[in-house]
Write a sequence for this structure.
């Protein structure tokens, strides 16, 4: 009896354990992307702006659909989202004591799955990959491949963007009133209050405009090396990919990294 069980188990493992189709979700960190910091500079009389930089690993997540039905090659479709946060602030000058009041900025980026928060650089990509698998192993399936990538990147909240919003008639009028009130030293505190109101109005204008910016799309490609693992009968598969990206259009403050990982689990039938 034991001999029969061992023979059956060996035969089962020797059979093809991989599914025709699978769908999964994965952790998707990216490496090497840097965001250059912007120096603090005036955007109008009494109001300045700056943003911090960011570098290192971007956090991310994604989803994958794969098809193993075709002879010789397999096909993968992947959607990934990666993001990195940075700080940005307005600085309103107080003419009474020459100090500055910091107004931290939080924005919501249109076209991305994030709400109101510290500014983020968000990069999303859709990949269509053709892979060549090694099918001689019963449990694991190594493969190499590459394909087309469509990138969608958010904008960076920078000095030119904020400065361009000063032409809003309401904000411009508030700043002009604040500057005019400075002619009388007795009104210095009133001038400080008006600059503060203008700063808060500019903050709201930045938030509204950020929602309208959306994301910018571009086309590039990728190469990949990976492996999937699946036991026979059990409809669960694990996968690990390393991807190398090229091409794509990014904001001038961004130096994109090219390497990302995909570590996930899926349902395979």
């Amino acid at each position: 009896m034991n001999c029969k069980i061992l023979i059956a188990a060996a035969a089962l493992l020797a059979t093809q354990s991989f599914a025709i189709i699978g769908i999964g979700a994965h952790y998707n960190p990216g490496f090497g992307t840097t965001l250059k910091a912007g120096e603090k500079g005036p955007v109008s009389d009494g109001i300045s702006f700056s943003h911090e930089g960011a570098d290192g690993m971007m956090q991310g997540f994604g989803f994958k659909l794969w098809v193993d039905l075709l002879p010789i090659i397999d096909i993968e479709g992947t959607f990934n989202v990666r993001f990195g946060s940075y700080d940005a602030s307005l600085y309103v000058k107080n003419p009474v004591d020459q100090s500055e009041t910091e107004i931290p900025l939080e924005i919501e980026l249109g076209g991305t799955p994030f709400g109101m928060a510290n500014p983020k650089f968000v990069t999303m990509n859709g990949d269509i990959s053709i892979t060549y698998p090694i099918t001689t192993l019963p449990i694991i399936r190594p493969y190499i491949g590459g394909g087309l990538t469509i990138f969608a990147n958010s904008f960076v909240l920078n000095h030119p963007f904020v400065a361009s919003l000063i032409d809003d008639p309401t904000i411009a009028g508030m700043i002009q009133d604040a500057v005019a009130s400075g002619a009388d030293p007795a009104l210095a505190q009133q001038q400080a209050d008006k600059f503060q109101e203008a700063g808060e109005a500019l903050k709201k204008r930045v938030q509204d405009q950020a929602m309208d910016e959306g994301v910018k799309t571009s086309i590039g490609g990728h190469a990949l090396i990976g492996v999937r693992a699946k036991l026979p009968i059990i409809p669960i598969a694990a996968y690990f990919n390393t991807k190398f990206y090229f091409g794509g259009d990014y904001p001038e403050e961004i130096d994109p990294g090219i390497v990302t990982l995909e570590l996930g689990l899926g349902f395979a039938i």
In short: The two ends are 31 Å apart (CA to CA).
